[in-house]
Amino acid sequence: MLGSVAIGSLAATLRASRGLAAKHDIAAVAARLGVSSADAIAVGDDCAAIPDGDGFLLLAIEGFINEFVAADPWFAGWCGVMVNISDVAAMGGRPLAVVDAVWSSGEENAAPLTSGLREAAQAFAVPIVGGHTNTRCDRSQLSVAILGRAQRLLTSFDAKAGDNLIAAIDLRGRYREPFANWEAFTNAPAARLRGDIAVLPAIAEAGLAGAGKDISQGGIIGTAIMLAECSGVGAVIDVLNIPRPDGVSLERWLQTFPSFGYLLAAPPRNVPTVLALFAARGIAAAQIGTVSEGDRVEITDGCVSEVVWDFSQGALIGCRTMEAIT
């Protein structure tokens, strides 16, 4: 039990967090580009899902903050592959190939970036098939894109009131200081990494969940807000039920970007099966809340609740479903 003061303070901290602020930037860019959730290919998901035959091609891209790339280039390279694979998995898909764009001031400074890219691609058995390189730049920069394929989608637009929220996070890791990145792959066998990722498409193909997102720099609450916004729903999240490593404060953990972390919305009848699939892989998973009707995402400790985001007061990423708007 945290108490009303602590829950209120925690909600305020999350609203003011750097990760949530970065997600808020999406709304202005999406508006300028003229894209929305009403387009033929909905914008707001982890990947663009393009109908193709009896399934979907999945297309995603990630760019990395300069200070992150400069401080830990090998890790940035690894993350370039990993987070894109995570986006594909979050949509219920399997990765096919990646391309990268690397800038650096000399080939020597590009080496740790490309080493991280190569080693991650080998670990996940996803080939790097091309890209762009400029080693005559004044700093190191990185962007990576991915192509995947799904038979059946998990989306950001299909969470429904009455669904349960499930968080699945690999706690077998550590912080990559000084950043808010929890990495659980350095000492993990490649076969285990590939098997863990495969749980997500298995859940999608079995129809066990309809909606999901990977937990990003917005943290688990920020990710829940984005999922609720896209689906036109609200949510109530019990922060004490969220899987968390020993010795890590709740405030820090809720602003953490885990290397393996997913939020799923599933009908209550399917929750035990979903939890068992993750448990079989040694991944911590728990029911952490419910999807509700309305405009508010709240956090609770089981006794006291506090609104973190109210869509009636404004959007986060600007991808609220048209049904919710009208």
Task: List its salient traits.
single chain, 326 residues, alpha+beta, Phosphoribosyl-aminoimidazole Synthetase, Chain A, domain 2, 60s Ribosomal Protein L30, Chain: A, 2 domains, 7-stranded mixed beta sheet, 5-stranded mixed beta sheet, 11 helices, 35% helix
What does this entry look like structurally?
There is one protein chain. Helices cover 35% and strands 29% of the residues. By secondary structure, it is of the alpha+beta class. It has 2 domains: 4-37 and 155-325, PurM-like C-terminal domain (Phosphoribosyl-aminoimidazole Synthetase, Chain A, domain 2); 48-150, 60s Ribosomal Protein L30, Chain: A (2-Layer Sandwich). The strands form 3 sheets. A 7-stranded mixed sheet has the order 9-12-6-13-10-14-15, with helices on both faces. A 5-stranded mixed sheet has the order 1-2-5-3-4. The protein has a 3-stranded mixed sheet with strand order 7-8-11, with no helix packed on it. Helix 4 runs parallel beside helix 5 (107-124). The longest helix is centred in the first third of the chain and has 18 residues, at 73-90. The chain is globular and about 55 Å long. 45% of the residues are buried.
Q: What's the structural domain tally?
A: 2
The best one-word shape is globular
- The helicity comes to 25-40%
Report the biggest beta sheet as strand number plus sense, adding barrel if it closes. 7 strands, mixed
Distance between the termini: 38 Å
Structural class: alpha+beta
What's the short version?
This protein has 326 residues and is α+β, with helices and mostly antiparallel strands.
